[in-house]
Design a protein that fits this description.
4 copies of one chain form a homotetramer.
Chain A (H helix, E strand, L loop, with lengths): L2 H12 L13 H4 L7 E6 L4 E5 L5 E2 L4 H13 L20 H5 L10 H10 L5 H16 L5 E2 L1 H10 L1 H12 L7 H12 L1 E3 L1 H7 L1 H4 L14 H14 L5 H7 L4 E3 L4 E6 L3 E6 L10 H14 L5
Helix pairs in contact in A: 1-14, 3-5, 3-12, 5-8, 5-9, 6-9, 6-10, 7-9, 8-9, 12-13
Chain lengths: 305, 305, 305, 305
Amino acid sequence: MDLSDVAATVLQDMQAHLVQGRVADYIPALARVDPRHFGLAIVTCEGETVIAGDADVPFSTQSISKVFTLTMALEKLGAELWKRVGREPSGSAFNSIVQLERERGVPRNPLINAGALVVADTLLEGGPAATIGEIVAFVRRAADDASITIDPEVATSEANTGFRNASLANFLRAEGNLHGAVADVLRVYFNQCALALSCRQLARSALYLASGGVDPLTGTHVTTPMRARRINALMMTSGHYDASGDFAFRVGLPGKSGVGGGILAIAPGRASIAVWSPGLGPQGSSLVGVMALQRLAALTAWSVF
Amino acid sequence: MDLSDVAATVLQDMQAHLVQGRVADYIPALARVDPRHFGLAIVTCEGETVIAGDADVPFSTQSISKVFTLTMALEKLGAELWKRVGREPSGSAFNSIVQLERERGVPRNPLINAGALVVADTLLEGGPAATIGEIVAFVRRAADDASITIDPEVATSEANTGFRNASLANFLRAEGNLHGAVADVLRVYFNQCALALSCRQLARSALYLASGGVDPLTGTHVTTPMRARRINALMMTSGHYDASGDFAFRVGLPGKSGVGGGILAIAPGRASIAVWSPGLGPQGSSLVGVMALQRLAALTAWSVF
Amino acid sequence: MDLSDVAATVLQDMQAHLVQGRVADYIPALARVDPRHFGLAIVTCEGETVIAGDADVPFSTQSISKVFTLTMALEKLGAELWKRVGREPSGSAFNSIVQLERERGVPRNPLINAGALVVADTLLEGGPAATIGEIVAFVRRAADDASITIDPEVATSEANTGFRNASLANFLRAEGNLHGAVADVLRVYFNQCALALSCRQLARSALYLASGGVDPLTGTHVTTPMRARRINALMMTSGHYDASGDFAFRVGLPGKSGVGGGILAIAPGRASIAVWSPGLGPQGSSLVGVMALQRLAALTAWSVF
Amino acid sequence: MDLSDVAATVLQDMQAHLVQGRVADYIPALARVDPRHFGLAIVTCEGETVIAGDADVPFSTQSISKVFTLTMALEKLGAELWKRVGREPSGSAFNSIVQLERERGVPRNPLINAGALVVADTLLEGGPAATIGEIVAFVRRAADDASITIDPEVATSEANTGFRNASLANFLRAEGNLHGAVADVLRVYFNQCALALSCRQLARSALYLASGGVDPLTGTHVTTPMRARRINALMMTSGHYDASGDFAFRVGLPGKSGVGGGILAIAPGRASIAVWSPGLGPQGSSLVGVMALQRLAALTAWSVF
């Protein structure tokens, strides 16, 4: 089956399942998204792009943005980063503070909220506005698309309701694991979560993770081969909070989900895949998105296992 | 570099590190193992076998045996198994009872002790002696080697000192998630842990996991392709307790460690690998064993990421 | 209001509330107890005994027996006991194992199950049968009543279903905080829980706690004044598991509840009080028993606060 | 022994122990307090005041202020308060956030930090400045001393370093258990902690708790008899965080400690006692302060047990 047939089959098979799950409703900008959206984009290392459904509609990437800031932090700090954040699955919800107390302010991994706050802190050097600019620039360059922006309404709403993240950030600061001001770290974090990308843009922007850290289409160095592999490993063990094991089990690809309903998946050596369906399951990942990736992995035999 | 050179290089590179870590000393049979042992065996899907060091010295497989009983339970129960045990990383130590209380007696995954006790319980039908016989038969058949046995001294010692496992088993029974008698389940578990295999035998016995569930050398069906993939996924996210993320990060292969110093790793589609070095790190995996697999993965580029 | 009027008023006020709560049903001998029973006995330091309702019907004292074994262990070991068990409220359920793992096998206090198992272990010297005999002798002497016995059916049922306690005992043994055999410790514990006392006997047997460690009616030394005070302190902070704060708040007396529906309360310098009503609340204390003691404390102004 | 002899004896017996423990050093105003201070004041229900040592030197009351705001909240809300905060010992450190996550934002009791933040929130009606004014007015009235003030340097320092409390407050807000603005609640809390009282003032201000809610010297109604008893009960089970059981065990009086080195203890029906020694033990209570109260309780036989 060629890739366009895969995408078409997945799109068709998902029709019956749409409107499952519950759209994130903690901010108006997410609550009003139509739950019937479904988008899929596959970008291969050879440069083929296959799309299906609403693959060109931008959505809020939310936690998927952690993959980009993690890449930036590894480029900046290298292994020093691992002094401030672990690389183990947390076994807990995305915003859990329990483990943070038990483990004295060292987040389990950079893909849970607490870890992403530490990552944001490491990028703060020139002040929050500059850091936000650098994150946007990083994603534009990785996606080879200068039109990518942050949704300002989402960023503002996140800031107004982000008490749980403010709790985590203050906790990290109390434990000495934030160096910048709490407000600055939160500002960066809320803005990165508000990055708006379509499936096409998201899959394109993460293609470097499928191809050893280098963008195979432009030749741009994004990160080293070893770091690309390690980011993939982290996505495999920790990319879906307390549903990471289930995703590995069902899909068999490194992935990262966001509460906006998007999921990024990487088939190393083959392709970068983005799927979007706003209805969420109990652990905060797109219900139909996981199904779609499970189907796609079965059709392509791209499981790494 | 061909595989024999890989094995030789790994063996040589590890010489400087031997005698690191601390040999398990909770039972005499493990405590008296010479910490300078190092063995490595690679068996490819094409039937090539490469060994280095003490690859023919049998050691106590301990928790690695959980991979075999999990395979047996999936063949017997299919997806019914997942009603009694989860498939998420635990984020906790191998013998933790905390999560068991929080989650009402459903172990996080079948590769922690509590999960393996439930798996053993599902295999109990004909009584503990019969079940132990079936486990040995399964491993002999998978390894195509009728000489494999259980070390009776280890099994007895485990039973005499296994209070933590007895605590877990009684807890599971109290929550209704053991159906057999506690003593029977423990007897099976202590015996499976006492399975004695050399690196060569261990790598050979798990080759079905590298080749879609079928032994590529004998054609024997061991499990389905999907189950083989899923067992690999579980090893990736949960095969090393609270060091699973680190193993995925450094080695990039599904693996399962045992407190006897052995580690099994699977390179899907390529090979099954067994390494043995008795000195353990703080989380209970072989210190030099992990290093050796990291080196091997770098030399072969077999990381799945 | 004199004490007989207090008892009569409490009895009358409780009529409307009987049959509230749920009788413990984990063993048949408890499950078949009529939930409409209500008994009350007050024995003052001056020797006055006032009863109401079913004050002469024996019931299973269950966890209330921990007060007696604690007294015995303090007499035997003195402050050495506190090396093996703490004296802080646990903030957890009576049979929680979580804190035991976090705190390396040292139970929070001697009035939760894990703590009582350690206490039982300290009394084991002459073997379980001898220890059980000593416990019965202690209670008979404290109650000045040679007819007190253990209900053998309850003891046997406890042993057959006590998997959670077996889990705790094995855990304590694994952490080195049981010195005797697990089976022996459990045998003592299950038997002490099966002590059958009426309200009259129970109140009488604990009178030493209201009068500085000496039985004011016989002059028998049971424990020192300081230890009596400290046992009362422990009952105040920890006598009702995760409802201890509520009991202190509502009743204002040191107390100890049992899953058989009995509650012992001490008014230091004044009286020992026993109440019995089999229906339990969510934390395992007698629902109507707590109400009755709250009413009694209001009528007598015996709250220590 | 009359009370002046008791005070003199305690003062003398403590000399050998002074400079034990470590002065709180998280803010300069506390760090520079001379650890050799020791003060003691006893105010009886009959109006006798006995002091020893530095009983007229003001110190930072810190968490002891929670007793006053709790009284205010109970007067304002009555039993409604218990819908937002529990009354069980927490079994955890004073600033733990773990239980808050497990129990969905309902603090275990009003004497841990999280609980005191909720209490502060209930007092916020007229804005933070008005609330702070009301708290000062309450304490002045209770102490019959218009000179009592807040130390502005301490209040400011608390605000600048109070990340852990900010974490708790944001967490409570995220769970819907703060109604006011996080910044307002924190402002009230940091100011109440900065109340500066001498031992003489502190003992005098809490005399209503020893005498059924009414100031026995002025006749002023502060709270009801039942609420006074219940506040005492809460101090007994929860007044010293995870050392509450130990305090009950050793001293036998309801008490509340503060990180400034002060401890308030109540002998119901007899006296209110304040002690101050800045060196802290591992759980954050004054080391010598607890010793002094243990000695005092032994000399006076005021233990409630």
